[in-house]
Amino acid sequence: MTVSALFSNVEACVFDAYGTLLDVNAAAERCRDDLGDSAGPLAELWRAKQLQYTWLSSLMGKHRDFYDITARGLDYAMESLGLNDAALRTKLMELYEVLDAYPEVLDMLSALKGAGMKTAILSNGTPGMLNTAVEAAGIGANLDKVISIEDAGIYKPAPSVYQLAVDQLGVAAENVCFVSSNGWDATGAAAFGFQVAWVNRAGLVQEKLDFPPKTELKDLTGLAQLVIT
Description:
This protein is of the alpha/beta class. The chain has 10 helices and 7 strands.
């Protein structure tokens, strides 16, 4: 863990969902019997195109919701890998709606709620996708809000998306700890004014922009200790 500054006066913890609380590789892993050696490449390309399509749709001013974006990313990945299987596509999309939570998530959220901290998800996912995912992961009781970018009509890292958390939680930006496994999302949140924890699960290099996270973590295990005072 690398800590560049201490958290202070945190009143709420706001989490990205996909890749931060929920394992985005879980759908492909559950289909490993069908995919074989293509499971890893499919998961990686699917995620890459999914994110690229959110940025493209935002920049083009042609918004499509995250379910549609996710399906298009999967179509690109399957075609790229020569996978022409409609039943498998349906199975993967169904599994994406019930992704596994990382093993430390429930205990971490419980610790935050036990300390009186406000908690929320702020995600690219549609309200329907998020409600299904939260229920499947069993974490809803430990969340005050589940916020979708659909309320802003544009994807992260647009500032108007981060503003949703401020407005819906009633907490000033400087009193929010925003947590994401995506370096670009961590950078966008820091630029907005949140105190940011980057969950660097993949051991990546930090983004080379002017808005670094306050903290870099390998997973979410130690987060509560950092923000609870």
